Amino acid sequence: MKVKLRYSHEVASKPILAEIILKTGLLINILEAKLTPKEGEMVIDIATQGSALKNALQQLRSSGLEVIELRSLVEVDKGLCISCGACISPCPSKAISFDENLDIEIDAKRCIGCGICVKACPRRAIQLI
Ligand code: SF4
Ligand code: SF4
Fold first, then answer.
1. Distance of alpha carbon 3 from its chain centroid, rounded?
2. Which residue among 2, 37, 90, 104 is least crowded, i.e. fewest CB within 10 A of its CB?
């Protein structure tokens, strides 16, 4: 599951992800990370589900991180989309493509919720959920 983490600068200096990986043995992949002098934001992919996932999310929360579960990241309003393709090349995850009907298709497994496609769309047809 993809998860967005927000944390203060103090929390950023602690090896929280490394500790959770060592404790649980889970595979955690960092998809995106931003750090400003005040706070940090990261999108991670945790390769598990069920109680192991629940336990990992609980550990992240109790370490002082804000945890946002990213079940579905973006949606396309097909009534507004004109299939211009302007959202495809800016996507850093190559999550957007045309289907066989030239409708825009988003691969939820690849999408990291960065919002670049939202800004790229001239019709405001894509929204972060
Ligand atoms: S939010 Fe848009 S640009 Fe960013 S990864 Fe997802 S589909 Fe690609
Ligand atoms: S940029 Fe907007 S209008 Fe163009 S294909 Fe993408 S979603 Fe459709």
1. 6
2. 37
Tell me if domain 2-70 and domain 72-129 are identical in fold.
yes
CATH superfamily of 2-70: ACT domain (3.30.70.260)
Span from the CA of 32 to the centroid of ligand 1 (angstroms): 11
Ligand 2, residue 84: give the atom nearest the CA.
4
Structure pTM?
Answer: 0.60
**Residue with structure tokens 């931003």?**
34
112, 124, 128, best to mutate for ligand 1 pocket (most atoms within 8 Å of CB): 112
Q: In this structure, are residues 15 and 8 in contact, taking their beta carbons and an 8 Å threshold? A: no
Span 15-26, pLDDT tens digits: 888 888 888 888
The domains of the chain are located at 2-70, 72-129
pLDDT in tens, 98-107: 999 999 999 8
Pairwise CA distance, residues 105 & 102, whole Å: 9
